[in-house]
Amino acid sequence: MDLKDILIKYRDAIIEEWIEHLQSEVSSRYNKRPRDELVITVSAAYDASYFVLVHNDFSKINCHIRWISDYRLHGGFSLSEVQHAYELYRILLLPILVKELKGVSLNNAIQQLNGCLFYTVTKFSDYFQSLHENQMMLYTQNLEEEVERRTKELAESESKYRLLVEGINDGYFVNQKGLIVFANQAYCDLHGYTIHEIIGKPYTELIAHKSLNFVKKLYEQRMEGKESDELYMYFRRHKDGRAIPTENKVKRIIYEGEYAVAGMCRDITERLEAERRIRESERLAHIGKLTTSLAHEIRNPLSSIKMNIQILLKHIAFNGNDKRRMEIMSSEITRLERILGEMLDFAKPLTLNLQPVPINTIIDSCLNIMDVKLKEKHIDIIKRYTKKIPRILLDRDKIEQAIINVLINSIEVLDHGGKIEITTKHMVDELKESGILHVEISDNGPGIQEEDLPFVFNPFFSNKKKGTGLGLFNVKKIIEAHGGSVMLNLKKPHGTSLLFSIPFMEMR
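Above: the chain's sequence. Below: its structure in C-alpha cell form.
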C-alpha cells in the first residue's frame, strides 16, 4: 500500500478522530463550534493536504489557508490554537504510516508529511499574522475616530468605553499624568498584574530600566504636543522583573476632560525570535558554503601528506627524535582531518535515515569505539540503563556521531581515573502510544564557567585550545533534526551533564 492508498483508505477515520480531538483537547473555542462546521473545515484541510502529499500540488492548501485564516481570525481564535489544530494531522497520521509502511517508504512518507505540515503551518502563521496586523491597524484607526467622536459628544459612559476595549486581544491602556488610569485585562496579563494592582501605578514602573529614558522622552514630547513616533519598540517590565520586548502604538487624547496618552501594546517576543532565527540561518548558510569550499581544498593535500608520512614511517628506519617528530606530524594531521570532518558536518544539511533501533545498544557501540581512549585514562564508565526501552525511529549513524562527540568532550577534560555516567530512561503515554526518550551523559570533570552556559551550543564557541567549537553544535543539530531538544547543566561540586530528549511513537 502506498501513501496515496493510505490517505484514501483512512480519510474518514482520521477526519472523525481529528474532530474529536479538536473538541476535547485544543481549546474551548473549538469545543463550542458546531460539529457541521468542523466537518467542513477538517475535511477541506485533509483534502488539501492530500493534494500536497500525493500530487505535490499546493494550490488547494493555499486557498484553504487564506479561507481558514480569515474565518478563524474573525472567530477570535489565536495563532497557537489553529497551529495546534493543524498539528493534529501529523499526530493522527504518523501511527498509521508506521503501521502500513516500512523502511525507505516510511522514511519518505514521514519526510513528505513533515514538509507538508511545515509549509502549511508556516504559510498559515504568516498569513494569519498579516491579517491580524491589518486588523490591528484598522482597529486602531477606528478607535481613534471613535475616541474623537466620543470626546466631542462627552455623552458616552465609562462602562461603554470599557466594553469597547476589553475585547481587544492586545493590551490597551490610558496614561494620564504619568499614572495608568485605565487598562484592559490583556494589558494587565502582559505585565503580570491584576486590574486593581495596575490602576494608579506609575507607568515608569512598567518600563524596563534599559528602555526607561527612551520611553519617558517620547511620553514628555507627546504630552507637550510635539511630534514623536506613534509606533515604537521597547522593553516592558513584568511583575517578576523580566524585561520583555514589546511594541506600542500610542496617541495623545483627551480623557475625562484632560490630556492623556492612549495606546495599544503587544508582545513581540515570538516575532523577534523568528527574525533572529532567519538571520542566524542566513549567516550559517553563508559560513557553511565557505567552510565546505575550504574543507575540500584542504582535505586532499592533507590526505596526500598523511599517506606519504605513513609510507616513510613504514620503509625508513628513523631514529630517536626524528621518528617521534614524524609520529607527531601524523597524529596532528589526523586531528586536522577530524576538524575538517566537523566543519563539513556543520556545513551540510542533515538527511535522516530513520530505522527502529535500541538506544542502549547504540550507546554500547559508541563505548566500544571509544574503548582505547577510555582505557588510556582509566576512565570508569557507569551505565544506568532502563531495561525494555522500546525500539525508536532514529538515524543510528547520526545518533552515534552525537554520542561520540559528547564522550570525546568528557574524555578530553577528565583526569586519569575520572568517571562518566550514562543514564537512559523513557516515558510512555499508553493511550497515545507515544513517549519521550531521555539520555543523560555526565562526568566529574572540571566543568565550565556558568556564564558560558548560554553559548555552549553556538557554532565555533570553545574554551579548548585545540577545539573547533563545532562538536556540541553538531550534537544539537542532530538531536533537533529528530524533533528533540538538548541541554547542558553544571553538576555539583564539579562536572557537567548533557541531557537530550527525543519524542517517539511506540513501535508495534
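The chain is about 60% helix and 20% strand.
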